[in-house]
Design brief:
CATH class of one domain: Alpha Beta
Bound molecules: adenosine-5'-triphosphate, magnesium ion
Strand order of the largest sheet: 6-7-8-3-9-10
Largest sheet: 6 strands, mixed
Radius of gyration: 18 Å
CATH topology of one domain: Rossmann fold
Length: about 240
């Protein structure tokens, strides 16, 4: 499977949020990394069909995802929200997980839900979950439908070590299953830890650079306002 983004532009409320994005993604893990407001979330939402481009297109195996019926698109692409509470609307977690299965008519991957440790939360109200619990439920309620394309927006936010390991394990399984996985991050250390197949550096709605791990140096990340290991451990005085 191939996901292609061709000359994509997105204009929201008079602002050019994505300017001219062209990318070609194969199965495996792509990390989209960029400073705050660089356009990561808008790009992922457009790839998921939640935002309409003002020009250009998003193609899966040559077919525009914006032309697909909603149900077909939901089977093909899963988008995990940056704000996990945005995806919730059911009264308990179990119904939240089951919703997408009813909607898409697929059997679902209970093993993914198990890896994320969500079953013990089934009777809880999604809106009353802690931040880390909500993150796990939010991801589980999307990926349970086993889409071949999974887009995750800052999925490690709020996660404790156990959550981090669970999600890492899930990403490794997705890789083995040859899914196209796209993760938006604003931190180069997290990116490094994930050993992505491809890194896309975004700034001001443009792709600054596309590379493999090692092809974009710490200096280049820092110049683009990305937290690196080196920047994190330096003393605050050195910047003032
Ligand atoms: N609906 C909208 N209307 C107008 N401007 C918007 C809208 N949505 C996003 N933007 C603007 O587009 C820019 C990119 O936003 P986006 O959420 O895609 O950035 P991001 O890279 O995900 O940032 P962060 O790291 O903070 O999550 C920001 O300047 C934001 O204010
Ligand atoms: Mg974002």
């Amino acid at each position: 499977m191939k996901l292609e983004i061709k000359s994509l532009r997105v204009r929201l409320n008079g602002k050019d949020v994505l300017k001219d994005i062209t990318l070609s993604l194969d199965s495996g893990l792509t990390v989209i990394i960029g400073e705050n407001s660089s356009g990561k979330t808008t790009l992922l939402k457009t790839m998921a069909g939640l935002v309409k481009p003002s020009a250009g297109e998003v193609l899966v195996d040559g077919k525009s995802i914006h032309q697909l019926h909603a149900r077909e698109r939901a089977r093909l692409i899963g988008y995990c929200w940056q704000n996990p509470y945005h995806g919730f609307f059911e009264e308990n977690v179990k119904r939240e997980i089951e919703f997408i299965l009813k909607n898409t008519g697929v059997n679902g991957r209970k093993d993914y839900v198990e890896i994320l440790g969500v079953e013990k939360l089934f009777n809880k109200n999604p809106f009353k979950l802690s931040g880390g619990e909500a993150r796990r439920v939010s991801i589980a309620s999307v990926v349970v439908a086993d889409q071949p394309i999974v887009l995750m927006d800052e999925p490690f936010n709020d996660m404790d070590l156990d959550g981090y390991r669970s999600l890492r394990k899930l990403v490794e399984i997705f890789k083995k299953e040859k899914k196209i996985i796209v993760i938006a991050l604003n931190n180069a250390m997290m990116m490094e830890a994930l050993s992505p197949d491809l890194i896309v550096l975004l700034r001001g709605g443009n792709v600054v650079k596309v590379g493999k791990p090692g092809e974009i140096g710490e200096k280049e990340f820092e110049e683009n306002n990305i937290v690196t290991r080196r920047a994190l451990i330096e003393s605050p005085e050195s910047n003032y």
